[in-house]
Each structure stands twice: as C-alpha cells, then as structure tokens.
Amino acid sequence: MEALLLATLYPTRLLGDSGYGSAEMLGWLVYEHGIEPHVTVFDKSARADGTFSREDFTYDHTSDVYTCPGGKMLTTTGTLVNDGAAMLYRASRHDCTDCALKVRCCPKDFVRKVSRSIYEGTRNLAREIARSWEGRTSRRLRKKIEMLFAHLKRILKLDRLRLRGPNGARDEFTLAATPQNLRKIAKLIAMPVARPA
User: Fold this and answer.
1) How far apart are CA 155 and CA 34, in angstroms?
2) Which of 29, 59, 63, 133 could form a disulfide with 35 if both were Cys (CB 3.0 to 4.6 A apart)?
C-alpha cells in the first residue's frame, strides 16, 4: 500500500497532450522533478512559406553551433532572448549574401537567425520518448483515459463544476464518476444464460 501511495505522489512519468508540452513545463518536469515526459511537444518552428524551418538546421552540442543546409555555421553570443527562454543563433552576413539557398532560407532578411530554447534538451527527450515503444504505449493508455473524461463531459454533462472550492470539486467529480464506474462494473458481470426447462 505504501509503495502505491509513493508511486502516486511521486510519479516517474507523466502522460499528457500538447498542453503539457511547452518548453517550460518540460523543463520543470525533467530538471526539477525527474519525471519522464510522455507528452506531445508543443512546437511552432515549422514554416508554411516553403523556407527552411529549424529542423533543417543541424545542431552540434559540443561546439554549440547550428549548421545550415548550405554548410555554414550559425553561432550565438550567449545572450538570452524572449524573456530569458531562448538563445539566438545567427549566420554571418557574408555567408548569407553569397549563398545559393538564400531564397529558401531567409529571402526577406539579411541573415538567418535560429532560436533555441534553453529547455531544448528536455524537448528532445520528449520527442525520443514519443518515437519509442513506451511512447506509443503511453499514447494508447492516454486515449483510454481521455475517452472517460469525454464521456463525463458529453454524456454525463460534467462540462463545468458547479460546487465551489477543492472539496466541492472533489465531491462533484466523485458523484459524476460513480455512475460511470457502475456502468463499467455492470459490463463485467456475466449475464445468466437462460436454460430450457
């Protein structure tokens, strides 16, 4: 019983959707609590205009530089941007001016800039987990739980809580989950087979 309580209070992994996949949340999960993030990474780096996105640039962790598709390096000064959440890597103006890929890389700017989150390591960890067998299993488990919540919201009309405070929310949720659990138990009970007399 104590082991179950400790596993509940101190989980080793978290299953969730992209709402939990922000860089700050992933950093908090991994660095501060040591929890494996089985969540979809919230990422808006893909571009819709046909130009190269951040994934087209290769990052070298030992040298702390990006390499563009044309083979040129993008370096950083180490200054944090976006309220201290990311570092900016820039190519040299000389490299971008004469580059044959400039039209596909940075057609409207003089140089290409790539931002890298300070929590990019945790984002990469979440992406690796998502591609693994454990990640696929976690997605299937999460779908089962999400369906239960969807049933509570749509069928049992628990779209919002009406009682105030944490105790009221707990009581209302327990009352809504009770018929749901009774339905599941009823499906497990074998129906008696009618025997001919």
Assistant:
1) 37
2) 29
Q: Which domain holds residue 113?
A: 54-117
The count of structural domains within the chain is: 1
Determine, yes or no, domain membership for 93: yes
**What is the C-alpha to C-alpha distance for residues 36 and 13, in angstroms, rounded to an integer?**
4
- Cβ neighbors of 76 (< 8 A, separation 6 or more) are 64, 65, 87, 88, 89, 90, 116
Contact 79/87 with Cβ under 8 angstroms? Answer: yes
- pLDDT tens profile 9-63: 678 888 887 788 888 899 988 988 888 888 888 887 777 787 888 888 989 988 8
Q: What is the DSSP pairing of strand 113-117 with strand 65-67?
A: unpaired
Is 72 domain-assigned?
Answer: yes
CA 24 to chain CA centroid, nearest Å: 11
Residue 71's contacts (CB-CB under 8 Å, 6 or more residues apart) are none
Tell me if 62 is assigned to some domain. yes
Q: Is residue 29 part of a domain?
A: no
Q: How far is CA 179 from the centre of its chain?
A: 32
Q: What is the pTM of this model?
A: 0.68
